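Translate structure to sequence.
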């Protein structure tokens, strides 16, 4: 016990002496890092004269962009033949070239968005379209405005999440529109959902595929490819006839725009009535 007390007193005394000679630490001011902010004004685009690519003529650069971005896409003259194909092979695309520099992006982005067929959103239509994966949609409005070729998968046995006016506004004047109708059970519903597209006009090439009735599909294709000027003439004629283009002894549902539609009375619930067949 005496030995332990001796060591305790000895070391405590030494520790106290050392602590008395210890100088207080000086607090250092924090180092402030200055961050350089990006200027708000857009910088002028560099001429890229040192790049071999931009020493080539514009025609050769466009050919390079075409091979990388849209080598297998149909031309405007080949859209009709393209629409008759039952399946379309995957189109290789290498969009990484658009992120190399600002000048390439400005020169080549139009090829990517104007030649490929983009998938429209099932509810938002031309908002949030995608080319490869729905997980990577396009959100920029100015970029979406460059798209003129569309593909839409529409389910017939569920309630649609858009109106006829929205569909007309979204797809009228498109260069190519393919509507693929499908349902989870064969014969489980009618084709009434497709009535949402009867107001579309001015489409260069339209195609309706899937489980839609053949006569309905052909009529809807012709209707969507009708010029906008002709549609205005038919609307004026309908007004003169009392707001409904009918013939003697015929109801409003029996004729559309003065032309007979034989498939309208195939369903007991009417082709334009929403909901499943009871």
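Result:
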């Amino acid at each position: 016990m005496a030995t332990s007390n001796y060591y305790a007193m000895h070391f405590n005394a030494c520790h106290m002496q050392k602590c008395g000679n210890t100088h207080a630490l000086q607090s250092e001011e924090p180092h402030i890092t200055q961050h350089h902010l990006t200027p708000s004004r857009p910088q002028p685009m560099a001429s890229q004269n040192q790049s071999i690519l931009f020493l080539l003529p514009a025609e050769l650069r466009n050919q390079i962009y075409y091979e990388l971005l849209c080598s297998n896409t149909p031309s405007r003259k080949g859209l009709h033949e393209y629409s008759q194909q039952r399946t379309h092979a995957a189109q290789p695309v290498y969009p990484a070239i658009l992120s190399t520099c600002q000048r390439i992006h400005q020169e080549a982005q139009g090829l990517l968005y104007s030649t490929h067929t983009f998938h429209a959103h099932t509810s938002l239509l031309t908002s949030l379209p995608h080319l490869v994966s729905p997980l990577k949609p396009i959100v920029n409005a100015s970029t979406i405005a460059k798209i003129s070729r569309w593909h839409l998968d529409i389910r017939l046995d569920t309630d649609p999440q858009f109106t006829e006016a929205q569909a007309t506004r979204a797809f009228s004047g498109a260069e190519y529109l393919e509507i693929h109708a499908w349902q989870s059970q064969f014969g489980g519903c009618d084709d009434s959902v497709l009535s949402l597209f009867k107001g579309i006009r001015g489409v260069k090439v339209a195609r309706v595929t899937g489980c839609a009735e053949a006569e309905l599909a052909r009529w809807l294709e012709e209707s969507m490819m009708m010029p906008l000027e002709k549609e205005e003439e038919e609307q004026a004629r309908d007004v003169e006839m009392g707001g409904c283009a009918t013939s003697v002894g015929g109801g409003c549902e029996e004729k559309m725009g003065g032309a007979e539609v034989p498939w309208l009375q195939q369903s007991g619930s009417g082709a334009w009535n929403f909901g499943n067949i009871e």
